[in-house]
Request: fold
Amino acid sequence: MSFNELRKDYLLDRWVVIATERGRRPTDFAKQERQKTKSGICPMCPGNEHMTPPAVLVYLKTNRGIKKSKDENSFRHKNWLIRCVPNLFPAFAPPKEKIDSGQIWKGNDLAVAVGHHEVLIESPNHDEHPADVQIPQLMLVVNSYINRLRELAAKPYVKYVSIFRNHGLEAGASLSHAHSQIIATPFTPRIVSDELKASKRFWKKTRKCVFCDIMKKERKGPRLILENSKFVVFAPYASVHPMEFWILPKKHEATLLDLSQSEAKTFAETLKTCLSGLKRLLNDPPYNYGFHLTIKKDTCDFYHWHLEVYPKLAIWAGFEKSTGIYINTVTPETAAESLRKTISS
Amino acid sequence: MSFNELRKDYLLDRWVVIATERGRRPTDFAKQERQKTKSGICPMCPGNEHMTPPAVLVYLKTNRGIKKSKDENSFRHKNWLIRCVPNLFPAFAPPKEKIDSGQIWKGNDLAVAVGHHEVLIESPNHDEHPADVQIPQLMLVVNSYINRLRELAAKPYVKYVSIFRNHGLEAGASLSHAHSQIIATPFTPRIVSDELKASKRFWKKTRKCVFCDIMKKERKGPRLILENSKFVVFAPYASVHPMEFWILPKKHEATLLDLSQSEAKTFAETLKTCLSGLKRLLNDPPYNYGFHLTIKKDTCDFYHWHLEVYPKLAIWAGFEKSTGIYINTVTPETAAESLRKTISS
Reply:
């Protein structure tokens, strides 16, 4: 088995995947290489299915409605609405046979990057991004997230599943076809783990969910962007990114796994409304979004899943990178007001 | 007094300056605005001294050698080699009168961004960056760092001084004139504070400096880039950025303040060698660097100042931003080998 290395900093609780699969040499980063444009062929467009590994999940359009399936090794379904395929250059890769934690953890600063890294192709139409897509298609995306989350979370070596989306070249999307990514990791990432610890402390003290508490306050304040029957959207108090917003479900749930179809529909509508507001307000800016959730059963009481959306409008430079303090040039209150107005106009 | 707000995340130990001084509206981030090029006038070039606030430090060329001075309010020195000026849009601003910690800390998630934010113009020549500059000029830069560090660290409301440099537009340098920045903060930033805690633990257990220990190992290993009489340069074991490297002084010192002139000279030479190697290898890539140091007297035993250099060759996207796990596509061993070869050729 050949895995990427997961290395921990000498002192900090900071883990890095040394991902050599792509086989990049240092000189690949020289300026002329950095500026190279990609070839014109999109490996995610229909007709190019052979350019990706077989799909682990496909939603197919059939005469009798939409059918869930997967590709066979030598066969790629053609008439698809969604395809979820393993990343050709995975940061985290599945073991070929059973693996125990002693084979994963090689020391306190070294592990093998066991896990999964998948690409979720959100539509057969190259440019059908969530800001513009029809709700039934976006529901398929949400259902794919849940489906993959369920399957990956059940694997014994998987401790967390990160579902995220990069939109636009400046936000790290090297291919412009509408897609999300799913990475399953052998440990809980630092940011989520810190949230879990803090929300557990709050719960022990008050027997309340801290996120329910935050939502209750933000619903009534100047940072509220949108509220409907099932979700609250607001610009967080200490937004790191200009125009950052979070979507929280009103129902206290630690993970996406129990989302009903009616909740999935409202979530798709909420997401589309917000992203299309952002697109209109700022002329289709690059952005990243990532789900925060837990797959651990014992954290259900105090954790609360949510989606964090980070427009990419600023550059983290020497100060941010060497200190971990951030500078945001738009107040969350102003951000919320602009998004609120755009959404309701 | 009007200060920016310093806000802490609901749960995480993550602080954000809400910097409204620049008065940016959300729509300033729309695509046509983002792509606007700057006017042709460089406020850092000689002749444009009136475009900046008066300098807090100037190195002047005189008939009798180099003289240290500062501007008067209504007067700007002309014949300068270095100018350090307050940032026109400071993230952290000095109080107009004496301020106590009760006036700074407004709660456990809110403070006023008291401090300093300065721009150090490294040369009268627009393009004289550290990879190309003459050593005597780069020594003036290093001496300016020390000089400003000494003055800012002595202020009662200053708990940390971050000295950093952004090179290239993609690394956040909005002006291309050779310059560094200095930000003094009212608390120790998370990354440095975590390093302090971990190195203190190591010291309590072993009575040794963990950085001296790291250096001793890295000097003999595959990640070494350069070693001279006073400094060791290596690619750190868990490099977050492709081609990242750190410069550590061999002499155990917690801060820059006691650097001798002979050490400053060797540091300038070491920095120039490494940055010029990086420039030749990757065709002048964007980068950030930041000093890690302490200004607290009681941390001298276990902390060890160093410079961290982060070439900007990758984009942190949804995964990195929402989890705090990083993916680096170049092994530190390969990075070190390439830099070593380029430097010695």
Observations:
- Residues 194-344 of chain A form a domain with the HIT family, subunit A fold (CATH 3.30.428.10).
- The mean pLDDT of chain A is 94.
- The first strand of chain A starts at residue 5 and ends at 8.
